[in-house]
Amino acid sequence: MLLQVQMFHQLGVCCNMKKKFSGFTLVELMIAMSIIAILSVVLSASFSKAQRDGRDRKRIDDLKAVQNAAEEMNLLSGTYPVTSAAYVAGVRWLAAGGQTVLESYPEDPKNDSSYVYSLSNISSTTYCVCALMENPKNEVSGPACDFTNPAGYFCIKNRQ
Question: What is the pTM assigned to this prediction?
């Protein structure tokens, strides 16, 4: 009898023996896929925010470059840039004597809006450079400019 029970065990015939399957159940797979989906949503939201902040940082850096170029032009020529053609992306700014003060007027990183440059008076003694920000917390700016809707803009004025 003992020999017969051992034989049943070896063949897997015994009714108490459960067959072991390797692999995952449907519930385990669904839980794993849900966790991966939640993580991907969280990471994409963080990545999207980082991209917006990076583009805003680039806008601020571009405005500071324009400010530096305008100040240098004022030192070399005695006036700030006055023609609207100077504020088109890719245009080079030349001071008196043909010296380049800005290699290429910057273009918005997202290309959906342009930088706004305005002179405050006819004698061109003051100016304001502004860019529309994507993140509302980056709207902090110095003194307001002279154009109508400064909400959402970051602005830089002349230093003098």
Answer: 0.67
Task: Let me know if residue 4 belongs to a domain.
Answer: no
Query: Phi, psi (5° rounding) for residue 115?
Result: -75, 145
Which one is predicted more confidently, 100 or 150?
100
Q: Where are the alpha helices (DSSP H) in 78-105?
A: none
Tens of pLDDT, residue by residue over 117-126, are 665 555 567 7
Q: In this structure, are residues 6 and 17 in contact, taking their beta carbons and an 8 Å threshold?
A: no
> SS3 of 12, please?
coil
Whichever domain contains 61, its CATH number is 3.30.700
Structural domain that includes position 56: 48-160
Residue 124 counted as domain residue: yes
Band (34; pLDDT cuts 50, 70, 90): very high
